[in-house]
Amino acid sequence: MKKKFVAIAAAATLVMAALAGCGSTSTTAESSAPAETTASEAASTEAASSEAASTEAASTEAASTEATTEEASTEAAAAEIPADLSGTVSMAGSTSMEKLANALAESFMAAYPGVTVTAEFTGSGAGIEAVTAGSVDIGNASRNLTDDEKAAGIAENIVAIDGIAVVVDTANEVAGLTSDQLASIYKGEVTNWSEVGGADQPIVVVGREAGSGTRSAFEELLAIEDQCAYANELDSTGAVMAKVASTPGAIGYVSLDVLDDTVKTVAVDDVEPTVENIKGGTYALSRPFVMATNGEISEQSEAVQAIFTYLASDEGKALVESVGLITVD
Predict the structure, then answer these.
(1) What is the spatial distance between Cα 92 and Cα 208, in angstroms, rounded to a whole number?
(2) CA 262, CA 256: separation in Å to the nearest integer?
(3) CA-based diameter of the chain, in Å?
């Protein structure tokens, strides 16, 4: 009886061991599956991270290439001017181009200290006469050259575009004029602001002196050359601004880049005098800024040629825009 009990106990022990073994195997299998999944997910995450890093690297490389290309373009333009350039460049002419000429002289001499650039402001006509006579290297004109000037061998080098703004005193209620109304005012056919929608107030017609590029361009654009009835003919853009600002009922015209809040601008044919409108070709009163040379640019001194190379560069274009003018391309 005792032996039979021992046998039964032994059998029970074997069954328990077997069951324990089965449980252990099952547990191991279940533990193994999550481990494999975790490894797979880790591999997937690593691949995604690698792909993201690769994309970011490609984006950075593209941006770097673009920046390098732009920098190379600017450096290429600058490389055309020798760092040790020396010489002199003399300019004379348009008072409307004073801001541009002074800014150009200052910036160019800072970049090329071996070159001395001087500028005088004597009016467009005088500037063309000076370059024709050979007394200056560049004649600044705020208008296109005439056929006679071109026939004399003077080259018309347009470096910027300017708008001519029509200005009145700040108390004037008139916001805009048509080209015909403006022409009639300057010809003396309309003499009171009430005739063009304003107050009952006499119109004081202010303009530039004979020979001024601004005056020539203004009159030519309105087809009123030699027909104007000026109350005041002043010898500079600044003088026109000051006269209009201080004279009730006054009207004048000035270069777009000198505008300030001492005067009020008047729309022409319902178009305001803005850079955007001039670039878009919708504003009627715009003109070129010309740096004329006696002969083509290639025939000039190395220093004069460098001035034009500089103006055509990115830095030169930024300079043109910084004084309120419009680049030619």
Answers:
(1) 18
(2) 14
(3) 148
Alpha carbons 273 and 265: distance in angstroms, whole number: 8
CB 146 within 8 A of CB 222: no
- What lies within 8 Å, CB to CB, of 69 at 6+ separation is none
- C-alpha closest to that of 93 among 115, 113, 119: 119
Backbone φ and ψ of 160, nearest 5°: -165, 170
Which ranges of 134-178 would DSSP assign to H, the alpha helix?
A: 147-151
pLDDT per position as a tens digit, 213-226: 889 889 989 999 99
Q: Quote the pLDDT of residue 294.
A: 98
**pLDDT tier at 30 (50, 70, 90 boundaries)?**
very low
Residue 120 class from Cβ within 10 Å (0-12 exposed, 13-18 middle, 19+ buried)? middle
Over residues 191-206, the pLDDT tens digits come to 999 999 999 999 999 9
- Give the span between the Cα atoms of 185 and 228, in whole angstroms: 9
Answer whether 294's CB lies under 8 Å from 131's CB: yes
320 burial via Cβ count (<10 Å: 0-12, 13-18, 19+): buried
To the question of pTM greater than 0.70 for the whole model, the response is: no
